[in-house]
Amino acid sequence: MGDFRLLDIEFEHSGQQQIITPILLQDEHDTILVDCGYPNFMSLLEKAVNRYDITLDSITKLIVTHHDIDHIGSLAAIKRTYPHIQIIAYEMEVPYIEGDKKVIRLEQAESTFDELPAEAKPYVQQFMDSLKAVETVRVDQTVTNGEILPWCGGIEIVHTPGHVPGHISLYLPSSKTLIAGDVVVIEQEKLGIANPQFADDLDEALRSVKLLLDYDIEQLVCYHGGLFQGDVQQAIQQLVQDYTT
Question: Ranges for the Metallo-beta-lactamase domain (predicted)?
Answer without folding.
Answer: 19-224
